[in-house]
Specification:
ten-stranded mixed sheet
Amino acid sequence: MYLLGISAFYHDSAAALIRDGEIVAAAQEERFTRKKHDHRFPIHAARYCLKEAGIGPGDLEAAVFYEKPLAKFERLLETYLAYAPAGFSSFLMAMQLWLKEKLYIGEIIGRELGRPHLKVLYAEHHESHLASAFFPSPFSEAAVMSIDGVGEWSTTALGIGRNERLELLSEIKFPHSLGLLYSAFTYYTGFKVNSGEYKVMGLAPYGEPKYANTILDHLMDLKEDGSFRMNMDYFNYPAGLTMTNERFHRLFGGPPREPESQLTQKEMDLARSVQAVTEEIMIRLARTAHRQTGMRHLCLAGGVALNCVANGRILRECSFDDIWIQPAAGDAGSALGAALAVWHRQYSGRREPPVSGEPAGGSLKPGGSLKPGGSLKAGAGLDLQRGSFLGPAYSNAEIEAFLLARNLPYRKFLVTGGNTGGNTGGDTGVAGDTGDTGRGEALVDHVAGLLESGAVVGWFHGRMEFGPRALGSRSILGDPRSPAMQATMNLKIKFRESFRPFAPSVLAEHVNEYFELDRPSPYMLLVAGIQKSRRREMTAEEQARWGIGKLNAVRSDIPAVTHVDYSARIQTVHRETNPRYHALIDAFRRRTGCAVLVNTSFNVRGEPIVCSPEDAYRCFMRTNMDYLVLEDCVLSKAEQPPLENDTDWKKEFELD
C-alpha cells in the first residue's frame, strides 16, 4: 500500500512516499524548482517520489495532506475578527489565497497528480510533526514534542509514542508560540522570517544575554513547567504584515535593523538573549515531558527542533537516556509525518524499530568512545529514516552524458581495473572500486589528497538528503585544520556573512576524541563542546575582544569548525548509512591524522542545496571551489571552460 504525504502552501513544500509504512522517498520542492523555500504544490517532488518507487498516481491508496485546512481557516477568521479593524490589509491578502486555492486542497492534489478522484486524507499539523518525530525513530516508546510557529491552533504539543500509537497529552495554542517569538527577533535583527532563524542562532555566541530578563519580564509569562503566555501588546503577527510593533521597538531601543546593513553589538546581544530564553523554555518543556511520561527517550520535531544548541543542552541537562530529532524537523518533514500518521492511525500499520529501545547509532557511556576502526553494533547509525538519504541519485552514465554533451574535461575513476579513457580532455581513468561498498580507494584517496593540500571540494554522491542539512551527499568540503578555511568558505564559496560557523563531519568511531559527545549525532542536530585537550587558550587580548572581533582567533587544532564559544554542530558519519563519505574521511585521517572534515551544504547564499549534476556544476563554476566530484568523476576548476549562457542551458535531466 502506497501513501503519498504532501506539505504545501506555506513554506518548504515537500512530498514523501511510504510503502506499507516503509519510507521510500522524500524531497523538498525547492530542490527541483531552484526557488528557496518554495511553497507551491510540490509536483516535482511528488513525481520524483513516484518515479523512485516505479509507480504512477493510479497505484496510490491515498494522498495525505499535512494539516486540516478548514481548522486553519477557522483560526485565521477568529484571529482577524478578534483584532479587527486592525490587520484589514493582511486579511485581504490572506483571503485571496484561501478562497482561490487553500480551501480546495483535495481538488488541487487530484488535479496536479493527474488523478482527479484520488482519495485525499488529512492529518493535523502537530500530529504530522509528532508522527515524523516518533515513527522513524529507533525507539519502541518515547515522549514526543513538537515546537514550531503554528499549525491550525497548536504551537507546542507534547505526546507519547508507543509502537504504532501516538497519544497527545497537552498543547500550547496560538498566539502563544515559541517559534513565533524566535521569528519576531529574527525579523527585528534584520533577517528573513522562516529562513534566517539559524543565522540568529549562529550569531548568538558573539553577544551577551543582556535582554533575556527584558523578554521574560515584558514579552511573556513563563511557568516552571515550560508553558507560557505571550504579551501580545508587543507583537503584530496575529493579524499584521510584520512580526513586531512600535511598542516592541521602543522596548528594545529603536526600529528593526535594515536587512543587509551593518551588524552591531545590539543584534548580537539580542540574538544571545532570545537564544537563552528559547533554551530555557525547551529545557523546562523537556523536563516536564520526562516527568509526565516517565519515558527514557525523547523525540523532537517542529521548526524549533532545528535549534541544535538547545537540543544539545536537553541531551546534557535533562534526564532522558537519549533523544532523536527528525532531520527534516520543519514543515517539509510534515509530509512524511502525515503519511506515517495515517498509515498507523487509519490503516493499523505495523512498526518495528531497528533497535528497540536503543538510540540511533548505539548509545555510548559518558566519557566512552566507539572503538576506532571497530564496527558498530547491529543497527548502529540506523533508524527507520536510513540516514535521511531519500532524494534523487544520478548514475555515472547520466553524469558522463551531461559532461560529454558540454565537452567538459574530467577525470574518471573506474569501477573495474585498467586505465581506459572515457572522458573529454581529462586524464585517463584510474582503477579503483567505486561501487556501493563505499571503498573506492583510488577516488577517495585522490580527493583526500586534494583536501589535505587546502583545496575546497564540491562532493556530489548518492541520494540527496531530505531536510535542511547536507550530510555528505550534497556537500562542500574542506580541511578543518586550516585557520583560514572558515573565512574562505564563507566569503569566497558561500557568499554569506562571515560570522556563520561551519559544521564538522567526524567518523562516528572517533567522535569522542574531538568533541564532548558520548553518542552519535548523524543528522547534525546536536551541538557539543570541543574536547578541552584540543582547545587553545586565548590570550588576554583575544579574551577582551567583543562581537565579531572574536571571530579570527584560533581556538583549537580544528579551528575551521570551532565556534567562538568552543562549540561545534556535529555530524557523526557512519559506514552503514554513507559508506563512501565515511571512506573519504577515513582516507583523510590516514593522510593527516585528522578524522574530521568541514562540511557545509552544496549551495550559495539564497539558493537551495543542489539536486542534479547540472545544479552542482553551475554552483561549482559560480564560486571559488577548486574541485568538483560527481560520483566517480573529478573536475578541476583550472581545466574548465568559461561558463557562458548558463541560464539558457536545457535542463535535460529534469524529472518531469
